[in-house]
Amino acid sequence: MQERLKELQAEALEKVAQAADLKELNDIRVSYLGKKGPITEVLKGMGKLSAEERPKMGALANEVRDLISGQIEAKQNELEKAAVEAKLAAETIDVTLPGRPVREGNHHALTRIVEEIEDLFIGMGYTVAEGPEVEKDYYNFEALNLPKGHPARDMQDSFYITEEILLRTHTSPVQARTMEARNGKGPVKIICPGKVYRRDNDDATHSHQFTQIEGLVVDENIRLSDLKGTLDVFAKKMFGEDREIRLRPSFFPFTEPSVEMDISCKMCGGKGCSTCKGTGWIEILGAGMVHPNVLEMAGYDSKKYTGFAFGMGPERIAMLKYGVDDIRHFYTNDIRFLKQFSVTE
């Protein structure tokens, strides 16, 4: 029995020394030190030994177990250290290689225009108001003096979801909601930027989805001259101090009187060129005095309160300001186009 234990010890230590990985080492541990291992089998025969031999044989068995266990632990540490060193060697970083540049993004041209307009009007005392893009027919049309069947609805061919729900065709519903929430009390001084949707064929100057910014002022004694002064400041801040404006009569169901605003052509200084089609002027936005019916439907006393409203398209402004010839450039995500609008500009 003593000789057998010595043989098992020598055999186990040799296998431990030759173990190539942790799995093989664990198999050796189970094989020799487990409950069904050869050392356990040898010890089962101790019952045949005399009372004097049993303690000696038990001590020898424990000695063999401890020695094998100690060698396995030492080998395990060795293999784990080697594994860590191999992993570090495989993951070595060559610090002499050039680093990868961090690319800085740009504000989208439309984002820049919207933020510039917001900053301008916030500086003039306006607040930014928002509303849902999926809108009720009432706020999109009826509250703006466009009852069902009104011919002007055809000018804004709409995406209807149900008979009473649609994708908003302009940001004017935000104005109607804001006035309604004020319960007929002034003043109101807001701008409403956001996306709008109309059934249109996409081409160089039209899109079925575009952005719009509308403004609204409602208070006592608001006059058309206040609107003109506001738009004059806007034009000079956006296009240069030498820009001139003119107002032409127009028609919008929600304003009366209504006007179209032109700015003097930046390319020719008002002399006439291909950009302005020889007129010296470029149409930029629509505006007017808030129709009394719109005020009344929002709960305002139209004899006490008056107001003005205006609406502009950031795409058109961006096209004029940056010389963009196709509205589709804003939506096709061509990185070459977007890179032209530098962060530091």
TrEMBL record:
<feature type="binding site">
    <location>
        <position position="256"/>
    </location>
    <ligand>
        <name>Mg(2+)</name>
    </ligand>
</feature>
<dbReference type="Pfam" id="PF01409">
    <property type="entry name" value="tRNA-synt_2d"/>
</dbReference>
<dbReference type="GO" id="GO:0004826">
    <property type="term" value="F:phenylalanine-tRNA ligase activity"/>
</dbReference>
<comment type="similarity">
    <text>Belongs to the class-II aminoacyl-tRNA synthetase family. Phe-tRNA synthetase alpha subunit type 1 subfamily.</text>
</comment>
<keyword id="KW-0436">Ligase</keyword>
<dbReference type="InterPro" id="IPR010978">
    <property type="entry name" value="tRNA-bd_arm"/>
</dbReference>
<dbReference type="InterPro" id="IPR045864">
    <property type="entry name" value="aa-tRNA-synth_II/BPL/LPL"/>
</dbReference>
<dbReference type="GO" id="GO:0005737">
    <property type="term" value="C:cytoplasm"/>
</dbReference>
<dbReference type="GO" id="GO:0006432">
    <property type="term" value="P:phenylalanyl-tRNA aminoacylation"/>
</dbReference>
<feature type="domain" description="Aminoacyl-transfer RNA synthetases class-II family profile">
    <location>
        <begin position="111"/>
        <end position="320"/>
    </location>
</feature>
<dbReference type="InterPro" id="IPR006195">
    <property type="entry name" value="aa-tRNA-synth_II"/>
</dbReference>
<dbReference type="Pfam" id="PF02912">
    <property type="entry name" value="Phe_tRNA-synt_N"/>
</dbReference>
<keyword id="KW-0030">Aminoacyl-tRNA synthetase</keyword>
<dbReference type="GO" id="GO:0005524">
    <property type="term" value="F:ATP binding"/>
</dbReference>
<dbReference type="GO" id="GO:0000287">
    <property type="term" value="F:magnesium ion binding"/>
</dbReference>
<keyword id="KW-0648">Protein biosynthesis</keyword>
<keyword id="KW-0547">Nucleotide-binding</keyword>
<dbReference type="InterPro" id="IPR022911">
    <property type="entry name" value="Phe_tRNA_ligase_alpha1_bac"/>
</dbReference>
<keyword id="KW-0479">Metal-binding</keyword>
<keyword id="KW-0460">Magnesium</keyword>
<dbReference type="InterPro" id="IPR004188">
    <property type="entry name" value="Phe-tRNA_ligase_II_N"/>
</dbReference>
<protein>
    <recommendedName>
        <fullName>Phenylalanine--tRNA ligase alpha subunit</fullName>
        <ecNumber>6.1.1.20</ecNumber>
    </recommendedName>
</protein>
<dbReference type="GO" id="GO:0000049">
    <property type="term" value="F:tRNA binding"/>
</dbReference>
<dbReference type="GO" id="GO:0140096">
    <property type="term" value="F:catalytic activity, acting on a protein"/>
</dbReference>
<dbReference type="InterPro" id="IPR002319">
    <property type="entry name" value="Phenylalanyl-tRNA_Synthase"/>
</dbReference>
<keyword id="KW-0067">ATP-binding</keyword>
<dbReference type="InterPro" id="IPR004529">
    <property type="entry name" value="Phe-tRNA-synth_IIc_asu"/>
</dbReference>
<dbReference type="GO" id="GO:0016740">
    <property type="term" value="F:transferase activity"/>
</dbReference>
<comment type="subunit">
    <text>Tetramer of two alpha and two beta subunits.</text>
</comment>
<keyword id="KW-0963">Cytoplasm</keyword>
